[in-house]
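Hi V.,

You were right to ask for the full record rather than a summary. Here it is.
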Amino acid sequence: LALAAAVFLAFGWAWQQELGLAAAQTVAFATWMVGHLVLAAHMRAERQSIFLSGVFANRPYLLWSGAALGLLALGVSVPFLTARLHLEPLNGLAWGVVLVAALALPSWLEITKWLGRQGGVTASGS
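Predicted structure:
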């Protein structure tokens, strides 16, 4: 739900800015892609914080993340791919919105992990 909220908020922002449908869809897609990487990082450990779990020690995650970000970058910058995928290049502000939405909203998991360490609540709600 948090990732869906991030995507809808990012799309809504782009639409409100009158960037056009293709740009709004690109912002939503980029938010979805980056948000999945953020969720995967948060979910590596049920109770341990992302900051303590050694995200950079997990080579498969790093390779997967690098490949996903690389494909996203290619998809929004290579003319043949942008046309084929119905995407378009984004400006710096749009990328900022993508990053803030994709990083902030899925990070509720860190709050539940912290609460779980304080009083027995886990990210799964048990």
